[in-house]
Structure formats: C-alpha cells, structure tokens
Amino acid sequence: MTTPRTQVGPGSEQDADRPVPVVVTATASGPRWHRWAVMGALFTGAVVFLFPFYYMIVASLQRSPNTSVGGAFPSLGNLTLDNYAQINASLNLWQSLLNSGIFTGGVLLGTMVFGVLGGYALAMLHFRGRGVLFSAMLLVLVVPFQLSMIPLYVLIARDYGLGDTYLGMILPFAINSTAVFIFRQYFLQLPSELFDAARIDGAGELRTLWSIALPLVRPALLTAVLLTFIGPWNEFLWPFLITKQQAKQPLAVALANYISTVQASTANPYGAILAGAVVLAVPAVALFLFFQRHFVSTDLGSGVKG
Amino acid sequence: MTTSATRSPVPRDHPAAPAAGGAGGGRRTSLTARLFGRQPIGMLLAAPYAVFIAVIFAFPIGFAVYMSFTDYYFTAPGVTVPHPFVGLDNYKTVLTDPAVLASFGHIGIFLILNVPLTAALSLGLAVALNRAIHFRTFFRAAYYVPYVTASVAVVAVWLFLFSSTGLVNQILGPLAPDPSWLVNSFWAMPMIALFVTWKQLGFFILLYLAALQNVPKELYESASVDGAGAWRSFRSVTVPGVRQATALVLLLAIVTGANLFTEPYLLTGGGGPDGASTTPVLLMYQQGIQQGKPDTASAIGVVLVILVLIVALINRRLTERSER
C-alpha cells in the first residue's frame, strides 16, 4: 500500500506532501546560522507537539505516579501494565472500542457510498437543483453543528426513540460534507474526454463512475477516508448526548465520563486515565502515520486558492 | 470564502452527451431537459445526500428557530402539548442572562489569543518546513499528530501536566500560579485557547505549506534583486502571498471558538472555576439538556450562529478589500 502512487491523479502538481524541491529564495543561499535557526525552530516545534504523547505513554506505564521531572523518564522498577487492566475493568475497553468501531464504520460506509455518488453528481451531471444542493453543502460546511444539536437531540433521542442506539449515533454524521466537497473537486479535475468516450460507448453513469472516475481519484478517496475516520472516532459531544448506557458508549465518551467522575474520588486516577487515552489515540495516529505519504493536505486547503 | 474559488471551475459540458443519452437530437429532449436538467439521473445519484442535508441539517435548523420563539419543554414520548408562541421572550431571557453574555466574552478571549498565535506560529513553522531539507516527513507527521488525536485523549494529558502537582508546576516551582492553571479563574480560558492552538496548529501548518507552494518564485527573485533581505521578502512577498490562508485561519478559529465544548467540559471541569471558562455551547448543553429548557438553548444557538455569520462576513469583506 505504501508504494508511491502514479502521478496521473489530479492535483499531483499542487501536492505539497511529497518532498518538493526546496523553494529557492533569497535566503536559501544565506548564512549558515540561518539554516541552523530553521532546524532549531522545527525541532523545538516537534518537541512541543510530541512531548505530551511521550508523557502520556510513560505515565500510563507507571506503577505509582511520579510528576517530578525525573518521572518523565521511564524507570524500570516503576513499570507496569496494571493501569491498562484497571481501565479495562472500569470501562469494558473492548466493548467501548467496538462501539467506536461501529460508529466510525457506519459513518465511513455512508460517506463512501452516498458521498461519492453525491460528489460525482455535483461535479459531472447537469440536473435540476444542482446549484441549490451545492450551496447547501457549502452552508453545512460553515454553520456550526451546535445549532442543530438541540433539535437533533429532541428529534433523534425523544421523538424517534433512537437514544442509546448505533443508528442514532451515526445519523447526524452519516455523510461527511467535507468528503463530498473533496470528491466533487477531484471529479471536476478529470478530463471530460474520458467521460464523453465512455458515454459514446454506451456506458451508464454508474458504470462510468465505477470503472473510470473512481480509479482515477484514489488519492482523494484515501484522504476522504482518513478525514472521515477521525471525525466520528474522536467525536465526543454527540455520542455523549445520545448515549446513557455505558454499554453503548464509544471509547471517547466512556473515557470522558471516567475522567469527570472518577477523578475526584481516586487517589491516583491518572495512570488509568492515561492508559485509556493511549488506547483511544493509537488507532487514529497509527492510521494517519501509516497512510501519511498519501494524505493530500492540499485538499483541505482547496478552498484557499484564489 | 470558498464560493468564489470553487465555483469557478465551469461545470462539465458534454457536447456528445445527447448522443449518449440515447434520445437522439437535443430538440426532442428539451422538455425533460428543461424540467429535470440534461442528465436527470444526477437527481437520483444525489438524492441520498440531498435528503440527508434536508433531514439532518435544514429541518433541525428550522426547528431550532421555531423552538426559540416558543415555550418548549420536554414531555413523555407520545404526549402532545401545545408550545405557545412567545415572541422574543427567549431571546430577552438569553441576552439579559449574565452567564450567557460572559460565555460570549470568553469566546472573545479565546479569539484574541488563538488567532494571532495560530497565524504566527503556523506560518513561521510552515516557512521553516518549506526550507528544511532533512526530516521533512518526520516534522510533518509530528506536527499533525495532535490534530488527528481525540480531544478527550489529549485533554487527559493536559490535565495531568497542568494539575497542581503536575510536571509543569514542578518545573516552575515557586513561579507556578496558585490556584493551579486549570482551576485558576484568570488562567482557565487562556489555557483552553492555548490547548486548542496546540492541537490544531498542525492543520494550519499544512494549510500554509500548501499556500506557500503557490507563491510565485519570481517574486522572491525580484525582491532579492531589489536588495530585500530575508525579513523584508518575508514581509512583502510571503505574507501577502498566503493571505487567503490567513483569512481561512481567522474563519476557522471563529467556527472553532463558536463550537467549544469538549475543552471547557473536561479540561476546566464544566466551564469552571466559577463559570470563568463557560462557552455558549456548554450553556446550550446545560440549559437545553440538563435543565430541560431547549427553547432558551436554541435561542443561544441562533444568536451564536448569527454572530458567527456576521464576523465571517466582515472577515471576508476585509480580506477582499485589502487584496485590491
């Protein structure tokens, strides 16, 4: 999977992700200290970004909490996996992970099926209402979800009785509009001759989409999957509102409830909390690191270009 | 913000489309074409997404506006009770509630800290990253890790780092604030702003990095020919060249600020201490769901969205004008 993709895909020219030849600027030939300053700033930044994660892992493995400066370094005598057993006992970690997985999987499925169809129609087909739909999509991207939070809660939890169900959790996120937007932008960049040829050959729209358009926008699909994944996996507010039973809560919600209730009562809750945090963080970080070569950041900023 | 940029790609025109449509010449299809568009199958393909937007976005927003003008309360399922129209009463309640006004003020504090910090740090690191020859992949990944991690997970570490006996205070020693950061009414909101800045910086670094690729190299060359130093060419070429990205930083910061919930709920224990870090969304949750007053909660939501749209419009107007 990690072999570099061919550059046929659209957008490869504006792709900031692969090592671009360094932009030659007035200062590239500048003094040597300049280069050191650049590296210094970058390393300082990396430390600031990564240290909390390092500390999260170290502290989740400590038998007794050590908040002194020395505690930031693992000492062999103080290492244990007890905190993981502890959080597993209090949260039912596997069930929570399964809930997170179902929630995320449902959103991914909805986005990859209906989002791709919507993006394709918005980019490629002339039909009544396309302009309205496109404007509505832009509005969804701008208007905060929180405005619809209360009515959605009233509708989904109270009127439809979908509280504590996976369906109720998934519904508000079922099609990720950012992903639809990315799909549309990518489909727009495909050469129209390909599609004309397919139509002349008598291919229907679904077949054209499946055999011609989709294979050409693979980088966009991957980006959209990653983006869509971190949404529900990390989401807290909505599943927090809609789930009361712990057996249905995704890990983020279960852990948050553990943080806000146990914190006060236990002498050292942090070991267990941080163990839970590691379990919550690892899937998203691992997925991102694994695919990061293909993660096309320019898509995120595709609206930025004038 | 995105409209002008994204609408410009002209929708595909298919000169050969009528033939493929199987309907022969363009004349005969003109009635269906006029009613449903040239490729009506598009309606079918886009229907699920259109229904989704209508049900999950448009209808709830209409419902929220309706609730905000009525006396709405929860009942047992199946029971229908009248929800009398009360005009602007809910808005009056909300706008005279000092807790609500304070929560909007907190968003102001958040923006004042978050926007300049984000813009300066992410542009600086993006420029540095653009120059770096070694470890580019490592740096990019390192900066992006907080962004892809769940807030709940990183909040846990921040709670640990900034607790009264936490590592930060251990290092600061006597300089540590008392009470500690997250339970200190002066520091609570700035800590939230700092947390969000840290968590989202990676996203904006990549945004600026992408924008930097579009700054024409010739501009740097001519600046250099004109005798501009590094700082001068940064000021007069780089900063104007990435203005669109900077406008987006501001817009997204406003949207993030308007959405703040997880951070005040968990990091400062429910908007504490003493309501020093409440946010509108936190109040919406407390009033709408905990206290069963969805009508005033919806009014807060409507006011919030109107404010966001106003600020976003002003933002757009300002950035457009300065481009000329």
Give the topology.
The complex is a heterodimer of chains A (306) and B (324).
Chain A: H1 32-60, H2 82-91, H3 93-124, H4 130-142, H5 146-159, H6 166-170, H7 177-188, H8 192-200, H9 205-216, H10 218-234, H11 237-242, H12 251-265, H13 270-291, H14 297-300
Helix pairs in contact in A: 1-13, 2-3, 2-13, 3-7, 3-10, 4-7, 7-10, 8-9, 10-13, 12-13
Chain B: H1 3-7, H2 17-21, H3 30-36, H4 41-68, H5 89-95, H6 98-131, H7 136-148, H8 151-161, H9 167-172, H10 188-213, H11 217-225, H12 230-241, H13 243-259, H14 262-267, H15 280-290, H16 294-323
Helix pairs in contact in B: 4-16, 5-16, 6-10, 6-13, 7-10, 10-13, 11-12, 13-16, 15-16
Give a structural overview.
The complex is a heterodimer of chains A (306) and B (324). Chain A is 65% helix and 0% strand. Chain A is an all-alpha fold and 306 residues long. Chain A is globular. With 324 residues, chain B is mainly α. Chain B has 16 helices and no strands. The longest helix of chain B is centred in the middle third of the chain and has 34 residues. Chain B is globular. Classes of the chains: A mainly alpha (306), B mainly alpha (324). At the A-B interface, helix 1, helix 3, helix 4, helix 5 and helix 7 of A face helix 1, helix 2, helix 4, helix 6 and helix 7 of B.
In short:
Chain A is mostly helical.
Task: Name the structural class of chain A.
Answer: mainly alpha
Q: Biggest sheet of chain A: strands, sense, closure?
A: none
State the helical fraction of chain B: over 70%
**What average pLDDT do the residues of chain B reach?**
83
Query: What pair of chains forms the biggest interface?
Result: A-B, 128 and 134 residues
Q: Give the helix proportion of chain A (percent range).
A: 55-70%
Mean pLDDT of chain A: 81
Main sheet specs of chain B:
none
Q: Tell me what portion of residues of chain A adopts beta-strand conformation.
A: under 5%
Number of helical regions of chain B = 16
Q: Structural class of the helices, strands and pairings of chain B?
A: mainly alpha
Uncertain runs of chain A are 1-29, 297-306
Computed CA radius of gyration of chain B, to the nearest angstrom: 26 Å
Which residue ranges of chain B are poorly predicted, with pLDDT under 50 across at least 5 consecutive positions? Answer: 1-26
Q: Report the end-to-end length of chain B measured between terminal Cα atoms.
A: 16 Å
Element string of chain B (H = helix, E = strand) = HHHHHHHHHHHHHHHH
What order do the helices and strands of chain A follow?
HHHHHHHHHHHHHH
Task: Please provide the count of β strands of chain B.
Answer: 0
Report, as a whole number of angstroms, the end-to-end distance of chain A: 34 Å
Beta-strand percentage range of chain B: under 5%
